[in-house]
Amino acid sequence: MNSPSSSLRVAVIGGGILGASSAVHLARLGARVTLVTEGGLSSEASGRSLAWLNSARFRSAEYHKLRMIGIDRYRTLAARYPAAPWLRFDGGLTWDADDSSNRITDAFAHEQSIGYHAQLLAPEQVAAMTPGVDVRAITRQGAIFNPGEGWVDLPSLIRVLLDEFATLGGEIVTHAGRASVDVKGGRATGVSTSSGRQIVADAVLVAAGAAVPKMVADVGVAIPDATPISLLVRSKPLKTGLRAVLNTPRVAVRPTPDGAIVFDSAWSEDEVVRHADGTYEVREATVQKLAEEASAVLADNPKIEIASYGVGPKPVPKDGEPVLGALKAVPGYFVAFTHSGATMGLITGELLARAIVTGEASPLLATFRPDRFA
Fold this sequence. Notes:
Strands 6-7-5-15-16-17-14-20 form an 8-stranded mixed beta sheet, sandwiched between helices. A 6-stranded mixed beta sheet has the order 9-2-1-13-22-21. A 3-stranded antiparallel beta sheet has the order 3-8-4. It has 9 helices and 22 strands. The relative contact order is 0.20. Helix 1 (about 15-30) links the parallel strand 1 and strand 2. The two termini are about 25 Å apart. By secondary structure, the chain is an alpha+beta fold. The protein is globular and about 65 Å long. The chain has helices at about 15-30, 60-80, 105-115, 125-130, 155-165, 210-215, 265-270, 285-295, 340-360, and strands spanning about 10-15, 30-35, 50-55, 85-90, 90-95, 120, 145, 150, 170-175, 180-185, 185-195, 200, 205, 230-235, 245, 250-255, 260-265, 275, 280, 305-315, 325, 335.
């Protein structure tokens, strides 16, 4: 087993939460780390994430366990930064459509059965539990309030993590262009970028979001991919008492550190136009309708003015489960590819860093190894 040592050189590809978390955890263990990004920090999926911290509804027991540990790490961080406006644990409120797809009772029973803190509320009970919600929008089957859930502003968190990374001697290379993993003698030996930068490394971690499946395909490894296009809209600051994350049939909404809200939905993502040249088009009518849906679930139905929106791929493995760990076929090559980057950001970086430095993977990652698709 390798011991933590400043002689271990690691290159991390990706400037989102998984890359930043892994980089700082590696540096804490004494590795010499270079973080490489194609563009700016948090310029891809982490910059347009609702970033809801949760393990609600239905998933495998192993995935639920890892998410709960991930939330625990955020609680430790919240204790370190108690006044941080970018990390809040004010709960989550969820309701389903009033049709045959409504599973709110089943979800509540499941969450109770696994010990996940949940309360099933009638619409008229919601205002007493969490403010800022128009209870008229809640369907007759009621809503689940999960008091232990929260949200994080990922760009803010990434800046905090990388400030520490820099003090530990880590190197950050932004706007490096596309990066590829150098493989010599059957193992990963470093990273090359389209801008001409070459980084020699003993291990490489690819945490490049939606680009991961294509990158590992270059070394003959298949990761089945179900990545959709995401659309996250940010409002201008507005007066709303909302504190919890809302997940509703037509829109998901959360507050921001600066008094605005961000919101998204599945239906609006389906309306994004993909052009052959790789660009995306978002119709103004889609954004305005999404803003109307957000207003409809907020108390007093405030007029929402749009500040900006982000659009692009949202990493999602085809089987819905994270893909984390070493490529068995290429020693020294590690990957991080998951839909739940926000909830799992801190714990994923911690576990992958330990595996890279010590050579021993945590049992927590056993069911999420990339070679499960082989």
